[in-house]
Design brief:
Elements (H helix, E strand, L loop, with lengths): L1 H31 L4 H6 L1 H5 L2 H12 L3 H26 L2 E2 L3 H21 L3 E2 L1 H27 L4 H9 L6 H33 L3 H13 L1 H12 L3 H26 L2 E2 L3 H22 L4 E2 L1 H20 L3 H6 L1
Antiparallel strand pairs: 1-4, 2-3
């Protein structure tokens, strides 16, 4: 069991590192062929944050472990809001200045409702995959359009912070090497995670869904945590929040969509009847916090979000029949 835990941790760190290097390589190459920094920031970097979840969920689905795939998505979204955002706001209050962010939030809620509709039958079909991937493409196009419109009236804080974080130099040769290394490491690391997640589930006597919602979800959310901490320390609150909102949208669209497309199948109904509704509620709470009159997420909100995450873990691990608990 100790070996499984060690291999899981090693796999998670390798996955996160490979995803970061892959995004770096893709950004350098995109810049070298003349793609505007705004487009790179909204697409390559935006999708790149969800790469660990995408690779793990797709690998799990291909192995017939759809519970792990779905749990990873829902758990990552809950973790991003309750643990990462809540913990950060408890330490450092966050201000929302970007108009783009305030336009992203309703889109996140729309995607969350769409996701719930598709999950309600406890099955992900190829048609569901097509719908979700199409939603991801529409979201990308809308965000690029909104970002371009914001530039006409003065650069939005989010786009300014995003472009400042893009790699400013780098050779194409090095970029290609990082891309190749990323594509080699990521599948290997994801297999390590998926295989050892099953070992842990059997050892602790919990379902693969719960392991996906907790251990795997927290691990694959490390890029969001890293970018959030970096952004908050630099006073770039908008990019920190924008990465979480964007990651949650891409998780629901791409990270659910691709597994459904390549390996459709059924999953544990608990994922919809219990965990989806937690994800929806915390998404609504995040929207309310960001759209409040002061556009500020303070210490109290952070503490409440963090307490919510602890309570959710308590229900998953210590309430014997959590579905009955949630449906009372």
């Amino acid at each position: 069991m100790l070996l499984a835990i060690v291999l899981m941790i090693v796999g998670l760190f390798l996955l996160v590192y490979a995803a970061d290097r892959l995004v770096y390589g893709a950004s350098v190459l995109a810049s070298s062929i003349g793609i505007p920094p705004l487009i790179i920031g909204m697409t390559v970097v935006g999708v790149g944050i969800s790469l660990p979840e995408l690779v793990v969920s797709t690998t799990a689905a291909l192995n017939g472990q759809m519970d792990l795939a779905v749990g990873n998505v829902i758990g990552s979204n809950i973790t991003n809001i309750l643990l990462i955002l809540g913990g950060a706001a408890l330490i450092h209050p966050l201000s929302v200045r970007s108009d783009i962010l305030r336009r992203e939030l309703p889109l996140m809620l729309i995607v969350t409702v769409l996701c719930g509709f598709l999950l309600s039958d406890s099955e992900l079909s190829r048609l569901d995959g097509v719908i979700l991937i199409a939603a991801a493409a529409i979201f990308l196009m809308l965000m690029v359009k909104i970002a371009k419109m914001s530039q006409h009236v003065g650069q939005d804080t989010l786009t300014r912070e995003q472009m400042a974080e893009l790699p400013q130099d780098g050779s194409n040769t090095v970029a290609f090497l990082w891309l190749a290394l990323g594509f080699i490491i990521m599948p290997l690391a994801s297999n390590m995670i998926v295989d050892n997640a099953s070992v842990m589930a059997r050892f602790f006597g919990v379902s693969e869904l719960v392991i996906g919602l907790t251990v795997v979800a927290i691990g694959t959310s490390l890029p969001e945590l890293a970018t959030f901490i970096a952004g908050a320390l630099k006073g770039e609150d908008d990019i920190a929040l924008g990465n979480i909102i964007g990651a949650n949208i891409f998780n629901m669209c791409l990270v659910l969509g691709l597994p459904a497309l390549v390996a459709p199948g059924h999953f544990n109904p608990d994922a919809f009847h219990r965990d989806y509704w937690v994800m929806l509620v915390v998404s609504v709470i995040l929207t309310g916090l960001c759209l409040m009159r002061k556009h500020r997420i303070g210490h109290l909100a952070g503490a409440l979000l963090l307490c919510g995450f602890i309570a959710y873990l308590g229900v998953l691990f210590f309430v014997p029949d959590s579905i009955t608990f949630f449906n009372r």
